[in-house]
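Predict both folds.
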Amino acid sequence: MPEPIETRQRAILKRLDTFSRFTDSSIRIPFTRFRIGAEPIIGLIPVVGDMAGLLLSGYVLLEAQRAGASREVKVKILHNMGIDFLGGLLPVVGDAFDAIYKANIRNARLLRNYLEKELAEEPPSSPFPWKTLIWLSILFAAVTGGLSLIL
């Protein structure tokens, strides 16, 4: 028996929350309120670290695809991934940019907003079965007319 869409989407959101926290805000910088994640630390390795960060960010896009997100949401996710990747390539300031921009948290929020809106909307009601009503009325009239002729 397939699991309900709502259950599947809530599981996706839970995985994304865990993932985005790990990549963007899992480590608190001592004596500050600022948090960084694994992605800016990986990004310290020139070019290779930024490529690895881009691959990690691709997970959010994969989850968006699994969740059935709209094309618009996926384009925004790709846009954030591109900004994060290109910003991270900048010498010296790129690593600080990675720590501040937090693309995975942004993308998880985008997908969360989309899915919560989808879950809040009621599915359209099915149209009234006029054809069935007409055919049943004709059938009832024929049966009633036939019975009145016999009796």
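Second protein follows, with its predicted structure tokens after the sequence.
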Amino acid sequence: MGKPDRASVPNVTDIHDRCFDELDAATFHDLVRLRIDVFVAEQECPYPELDGWDTHPSTRHVWLDGASGPATYLRVLVEPDGSHRIGRVVTRSDARGNGLAGVLLDHVHATTPGRLVVDAQTYLVSWYASLGYVPTGEEFVEEGIGHVPMARKAADA
């Protein structure tokens, strides 16, 4: 799997990496809508999407815009032990297959010191492994979807 060529994806702009207080209401709306469109509607997984972490001062919202708003997104939370939890990794259906989520993860790897953790949906374990993540526990089911806890040692930023 080679490096994705972001230039080959029409109308994808630079990476945005912002805390909640740096987001305007319209942008936050669009980011949450992308998450709900994929996780709640497409994956048919009704769960409490607004969990209180989006507004935490240390939470980072990272995304790439496409022609019709956010194309791919993830958020980074700081865990009590100092590791960084990557979550809500999502790509709009019409933007999939272009390596955009990998572009965001490369950015997070380059800008986040210390250990990174993720609860990977089971079907994505091999993809995360290709990015340097290793399983740290057994598969578990959350909201009806299988997940595997994984971790990666990030380069010091």
